[in-house]
Amino acid sequence: AFLFLELGNFDNALRDFNKCVQIAPNNWETYYYRTSYYEKNGDYDKAFEDYKIIIKLRPNNPEPICDIADFSRYYLEKPNLAINFYKEALSIDSTYDVAIHNLALTYENLKKYDEALKFYKKTLNFAQTPYNISLTYRNIGDVYSELENHEKAIENYNNSIKINPDDDYNYFTR
Question: How far is the C-alpha of 129 from the C-alpha of 107, rounded, in Å?
Answer without folding.
Answer: 22
